[in-house]
Write a structure and sequence with these properties.
about 260 residues; alpha+beta; Fructose-1,6-Bisphosphatase, Chain A, domain 1; D-Maltodextrin-Binding Protein, domain 2; 2 domains; seven-stranded mixed sheet; three-stranded antiparallel sheet; 8 helices
Length: about 260
């Protein structure tokens, strides 16, 4: 059973269903944490859950049943899914939202798929193969096995000259501003890029940026897939306080402030 092919196929199929909702009117609900929820979040969750079922592994999804720690702490290997990361961007019609599927083993991402349905940008990475990029053409029915063979290895480019920082469109904080000022002092002129969803981790992975500071709250499913892509492209994803790699399946699924960085 090829877990990478299954997860790529699931992400692309979920993306098709998301775009169907994106193209028409839909209702917007509000979850208990005051974040928005749409039909697209729900349908993507169902598609991914169904397609990953053949792997016989547990699935921890933002839009699924929130399994308690007493049960999931014994999960050695499982899927961590964000069916639609960037729901606010989806609602704003910015196109900057993604499907995220990660395989977690002993608290560490060992496989990750990040797919942006609007642009067709597909990033994936595994500890065995490294990380890759592929542009999905919605008009061409390409299977996952073909995509894996045809994809370009990351990083795609090496940044020259200007030091580029990618930051959140919706969640910048005073701490982030301080981080940016510190990098300005160290590197001089910098280029600041704003982006939504987990695509920010992938921009560091593909060489478009040197660093992504996220000094604001996120959940584990927001970062797991992008973490794998960045890590297997030669980047580090570390806790801003302890400087240690982010870990997953904690009792509290909230991430600490973290930094994604391409080390030279």
């Amino acid at each position: 059973m090829d877990l990478l092919n299954i997860s790529i196929a699931a992400a692309i199929e979920a993306g098709k269903n998301i775009l169907e909702v994106y193209s028409r009117e839909y209702a917007i609900e509000t979850k208990n944490d005051n974040s928005p929820l749409t039909e697209a979040d729900k349908v993507s969750h169902e598609v991914i859950k169904t397609m990953l079922a053949e792997t016989n592994m547990h699935v921890l999804s933002e839009e699924g049943r929130q399994t308690g720690y007493t049960e999931r702490k014994s999960w050695n290997t499982f899927w961590m899914v964000d069916p639609l990361d960037g729901t606010k961007e989806f609602i704003k019609k910015s196109g900057e939202f993604t499907v995220n599927i990660a395989l977690i083993k002993e608290g560490v991402p060992v496989l990750g798929v990040v797919y942006a349905p609007v642009t067709g940008a597909l990033y994936f990475g595994t500890e065995e193969k490294g990380s890759f990029y592929y542009k999905v053409d919605a008009g061409i029915n390409q299977d996952a096995a073909y995509i894996v063979k045809a994809a370009e290895k990351l990083p795609l480019k090496q940044e020259a000259g200007t030091y580029t920082i990618v930051a959140s469109k919706s969640h910048n904080t005073p701490e982030t501003d301080v981080f940016i000022e510190e990098r300005k002092k160290k590197y001089g002129n910098i280029n600041l890029v704003s982006a939504g969803s987990s695509i920010k981790l992938c921009l560091v992975a593909d060489g478009s940026a040197r660093v992504y500071p996220r000094l604001a709250p996120t959940m584990e499913w927001d970062t797991a897939a992008g973490h794998a892509v960045a890590k297997f492209a030669g980047c580090t994803v570390y806790d801003y306080g302890s400087k240690k790699e982010l870990v997953y399946n904690k009792e509290n699924l909230l991430n600490p402030s973290f930094v994604v960085e391409k080390l030279s």
